[in-house]
């Protein structure tokens, strides 16, 4: 494959993102659903791919587009390799530029949030594994690892699903990546749609404290634009461009975090090969991205210790992450196989339906009892994340709490620091598939059931009974 083909494939991603933004500005349904441009662009790439455009062209009498659709098979090959690369960039920057809180501080503020978030994550595994053991494997002949698809697709999202492609292939189930990507798309769309319905319901019922029944996002917000008077800098220059371009510097930090993660992975694989590989092999199948996240954490500890000038700007890291995630989603959706989903449509619907019912039910029934204050604003963020990754949760929280007056944002952020290394693409998500294959689904089911029970008990019997905080405390937390 030529370098020109690789470069052109990357340029096409940029063009698709521009087209997607125009669609968001002009298409009212996309505005009402708050569809991100990357999802719109990925949908366009999917429609122009071999499963839609290629089949239509074949029906009209030409086989020219059967293998690669409008873009060609070589472009599809480049795009199929991108998710596994870009997801490491996203995860490497999760903690770069953040102040690492003390465990006591995080637990005091976000204890209820951690309990509720862990309930959602572990519950996805429990329900998915039960469904796999009782229905998907005996009835449809699918492997037990399909029980992990709800958490991988819903909470992990497109990035995690794309990053686990090699893991699925190594265990002889390459269809798992397409099913996980399909789950991620369904989860994100339904998370936004159902989330907005729930916010409207909460405003009418008085559960959303910061919203009135007639409140609604502005036209600019629906179009994804920022009014001139509300615009702010997307990042801050921390070094002079004459010495090094600030964007280049921050990319260097991300690259170093990924390299540290790769060294960690190689070290763990070597240790495993020396000690226990004949009994169990886990790290041989774990992808790079969760270790890249650990590399970012280790690098941030070093930065906190030695970076007196504070040259790492969190917003700059987020811009690079956002760029990588947008490209990842379009590339992943553009290479999604609709044929695989069609061949497994009943199991796919069962998994997706089970995940949706669990997230909605947990939000309506458990959040009011586990979150002692502002349960709606705090719960809707975890609900959105459990169905469509972190960005969906942030979108829903922003709609429910537009002025950031509640403790939802800081509690959600601290919860992320505790749970992100493990679930939603972390170590547990990455290790779940090899664990299921090598030990069976039942041991993992037992572990997740214990975690679910512990999270429920702590949330219902301890955090949920703490009651409303004093007004002064709630105000200080929300600042």
What does it look like?
The chain is mainly α and 479 residues long. 72% of the residues lie in helices and 0% in strands. Helix 11 (246-275) packs across helix 12 (289-306) and helix 18 packs across helix 19 (441-461). It is globular and about 65 Å long.
Summarize the structure.
This protein is an all-alpha fold and 479 residues long.
Provide tags for this entry.
single chain, 479 residues, mainly alpha, 20 helices, 72% helix, globular, disordered C terminus
Give the N-to-C terminal Cα separation. Answer: 53 Å
Based on CA atoms alone, the radius of gyration comes out at 22 Å
Main beta-sheet annotation:
none
The poorly predicted ranges are 468-479
Number of helices: 20
Note the quaternary state here.
Answer: single chain
Mean pLDDT figure: 83
Helix content: over 70%
Class by alpha and beta content: mainly alpha
Q: Topology as H/E string?
A: HHHHHHHHHHHHHHHHHHHH
Strand content: under 5%
The tally of strands reads 0
Shape estimate: globular
Which SSEs are present, and which pair or pack?
Elements: H1 3-26, H2 28-32, H3 37-47, H4 50-59, H5 73-92, H6 103-140, H7 149-163, H8 165-170, H9 175-205, H10 219-223, H11 246-275, H12 289-306, H13 314-334, H14 338-343, H15 345-370, H16 375-400, H17 408-419, H18 427-439, H19 441-461, H20 471-478
